[in-house]
Specification:
The chain is α+β, with helices and mostly antiparallel strands. The protein is built from six helices and 16 strands. It is about 25% helix and about 25% strand. The chain binds flavin-adenine dinucleotide.
């Protein structure tokens, strides 16, 4: 596959060739991407998608890589990374317009400073807004979808479109975006007024609890499996005796069994095998097949 950057049109953002995906995933694993581009603006994203489509080159969009397991073989084609770019926040009364690349904790803190509540629960989620909306991220019984009003997308046909919340099919850690190649560019949120100090206190409490509960000192990608009905995957995994189980440098966290941590040089394959080991052990003991929440990105 030949990727001719010059034919993409003028790309204003950063272009990285043969880029290790370890640098772009919180698991710190994965092979190289043929090309990874951090677009500077929406026009860059359009140029990349139009070029990829016309040449039949595969493309993938990622945010902060905090819910991703990228294959050791890497990614063929173009990776478009929308994180800390396209990250403008515009606040007008209770309406917040935010670029897909804004990190959720930054957005939560900025809205807090403006006396707006509704995003406290994402203050410790290390994803970008686009990845967060696609995953309908959330914590403590809350989901991002509660405050989403409208989403601006770039379709796989290269057209800009807008979708209202009712058209997005949000569910638990789910949105229709998981079935499409739509790229989320911008999101409009509707928040409620609140007292900055109260919101700050709630956020501090959330961050403190997460620090105690989650193994944040090792690379990881958050919860590995989705909650299933009344079952907490962490409890099932712990009761199936999987805590501390390893494959290479990948380990089922001793602190929180629904986390896999990379203790140093884990390969994506180690993590994949460990995921299978956990599924087998939980199935053998409880007849429950755990469904991964983590997204696998392969060639
Ligand atoms: C320590 C830790 C704690 C976590 N805690 C939580 C938690 O409490 N709750 C929770 O829900 N999650 C949690 N996560 C998981 C993760 O942070 C969320 O799923 C987050 O929303 C992913 O965002 P991202 O930008 O990193 O997306 P990525 O991981 O980069 O991508 C996730 C998916 O979204 C797609 N995507 C990314 N950006 C776009 C875009 N602009 N347009 C279209 N598709 C896009 C990707 O193709 C991929 O399929 C945690 C992760 C870590 C590491």
């Amino acid at each position: 596959m030949k990727i001719d950057i010059k034919r993409m049109g003028e790309i204003k953002g950063q272009i990285k060739i043969n880029e290790s995906m370890r640098n772009h995933t919180t698991f710190r694993v994965g092979g190289t991407a043929d090309i990874l581009i951090l677009p500077k603006d929406i026009e860059d994203v359009q140029n990349i998608v139009n070029y990829a489509k016309s040449e039949g080159i595969p493309y993938h969009v990622i945010g902060n890589g905090s819910n991703l397991l990228v294959s050791d073989k890497g990614i063929r084609g173009i990776v478009i990374k929308i994180c800390k770019v396209l990250n403008e926040i515009i606040i007008s009364e209770n309406t917040v317009t935010v670029g897909a690349g804004c990190l959720l904790p930054s957005l939560a803190k900025e809205t807090m400073r403006h006396g707006l509540k509704g995003l406290e629960h994402v203050v410790g989620i290390p994803g970008a807004v686009g990845g967060g909306v696609r995953m309908n991220a959330g914590s403590g019984g809350h989901e991002l979808s509660e405050v989403v009003e409208k989403v601006t997308i770039l379709t796989s046909e290269g057209a800009i479109g807008e979708l209202y919340k009712s058209q997005i099919g949000f569910g638990y850690r789910y949105s229709f975006f998981q079935e499409t190649k739509d790229i989320i560019l911008q999101v409009i949120l509707r928040l409620q007024s609140g007292a900055t100090e109260d919101i700050r206190k709630t956020m501090d409490d959330i961050l403190k609890k997460r620090k105690e509960k989650f193994p944040l000192s090792y690379p990881n990608a958050g919860s590995v499996f989705k909650r299933k009905g009344d079952y907490s995957p962490g409890k099932l995994i712990e009761d199936a005796g999987c805590k501390g189980m390893t494959r290479g440098d990948a380990e089922v966290s001793q602190l929180h069994a629904n986390f896999i941590i990379n203790k140093g040089n884990a390969a994506a394959n180690d993590i994949l095998f460990l995921i299978k080991d956990i599924q087998d052990a939980v199935f053998a003991k409880f007849n429950v097949l755990l469904e991964p929440e983590i997204i696998f990105l392969e060639e």
